[in-house]
Amino acid sequence: MTQNPQAPLLNSHNKQEYPPAHTAEHLLNGLMDQTYHCGRAFSAHVERQKSKLDYHLPVPLTQEQIQALEDRINQIIAEDVEVWIEYATQADVAQRFDMSRLPDDASETVRIVHVGPYDECLCAGQHVSHTGEIGHFRISSSRWLEGVQRLVFRLDATQ
Q: Whole-prediction pTM value?
């Protein structure tokens, strides 16, 4: 596996993410899985204005738990940790990641995005280079219905 080499040939990516929100999504996904062992969001819509992620959880998060998520993500943003890329073959990382989320025609080489020690996942999207570029993270709303916890977040440039 290599870190930050010349980019190998990968499948084309058909989305133009807003890098701060997309990187914040990584932080929220990593923290949700580490804290609640629920895996990454099974559904996500990430945009410049607001983003929403859905997780399978048996009970709703409390307001205190939601506030703790928000506070922790803002701490990580303030740490200004590096976001970096690793390239590897699918075979090399099959034990580390859920390969079922890759498209059927995925290239043999995959790209792994690391947000400091807080998250790593297969991803072809655009990201900031350091978490300090994200801005202030806030969970603007949440709801739980029939085992699905939705979290909606927004980014503010200044706080």
A: 0.88
